[in-house]
């Protein structure tokens, strides 16, 4: 299948990633080598797996080690036998004086990127719970983190590598809800679900604070479909589970899974 025939099945903004995946797979097939990806979001994993289904390749995922949102994938020839070390992944716990400080996701992310110059794709999930903080990283960068990051915010920090079995368990904060909307436009779904004004929803779209299936979107009148995931910075996420049809008054009835961001007091 030509690349042009492949592209037509995906969003135009995904072309660059598709080219990268095809290059990875060509390298595995032509050189009988093993490719380990950087951390991928769920949409990127979905694209990779759909392309891999058409090849005689093996796919291994860190989801088998730990249930996280961001995932590393190994693409390998048929003869390859999995070695977990090939995932190049480590779980770091951040040690700090939690009696005096409270680390935030944005502080941790900013410190890792700003103090080391690494790409965001070399970091996995950042997990915070009850004064503890952990982060998944590419293992070959451990020394860089340990040597360069001495403070996060005002807190002095140290890093300890933990076995995956000691991953912090967090409670799901999502709720199921049936929402009525006048149409399937993304601005109206955001406004109705998070109970904000439509003007604010439009402003968030125009301010590039909204992603649809992990891609930034600014069009307020974009039509959302069943299965789509909407992420709104500062508010949370909306997963469209089912479109239940119209009410007698002509409104769309949709079933959503809503995950709201909670700010600690």
Automatic annotation (TrEMBL):
Domain RNA-binding S4: 184-249
Species of the source: Lactococcus petauri
Top-level division of the source organism's lineage: Bacteria
Keywords carried by this UniProt record: Cell cycle, Cell division, RNA-binding
UniProt-recorded name of the protein: Cell division protein
Gene Ontology molecular function: RNA binding
GO terms under biological process: cell division
CDD domains according to UniProt: S4 (cd00165)
């Amino acid at each position: 299948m030509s690349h042009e025939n492949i592209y037509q099945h995906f969003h135009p903004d995904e072309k660059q990633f598709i080219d990268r995946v095809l290059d990875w797979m060509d390298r595995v097939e032509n050189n009988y080598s093993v490719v380990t990806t950087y951390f991928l979001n769920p949409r990127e994993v979905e694209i990779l797996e759909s392309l891999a289904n058409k090849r005689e390749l093996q796919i291994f995922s860190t989801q088998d080690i730990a249930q996280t949102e961001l995932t590393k994938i190994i693409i390998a020839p048929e003869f390859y036998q999995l070695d977990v070390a090939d995932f190049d992944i480590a779980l770091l716990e951040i040690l700090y004086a939690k009696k005096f400080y409270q680390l935030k996701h944005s502080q941790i992310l900013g410190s890792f990127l700003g103090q080391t110059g690494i790409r965001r794709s070399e970091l996995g999930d950042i997990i915070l719970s009850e004064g503890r903080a952990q982060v998944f990283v590419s293992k070959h960068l451990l020394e860089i983190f340990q040597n360069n990051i001495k403070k996060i915010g005002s807190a002095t920090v140290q890093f300890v590598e933990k076995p995956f079995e000691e991953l912090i368990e967090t409670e799901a904060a999502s709720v199921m809800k049936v929402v009525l909307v006048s149409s399937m436009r993304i601005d109206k779904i955001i406004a109705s679900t998070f109970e904000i004004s439509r003007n604010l929803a439009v402003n968030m779209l125009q301010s590039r604070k909204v992603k649809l299936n992990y891609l930034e979107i600014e069009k307020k009148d974009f039509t959302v479909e069943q299965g789509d995931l909407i992420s709104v910075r500062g508010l949370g996420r909306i997963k469209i589970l089912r479109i239940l049809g119209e009410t007698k008054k002509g409104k769309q009835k949709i079933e959503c899974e809503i995950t709201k961001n909670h700010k600690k007091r």
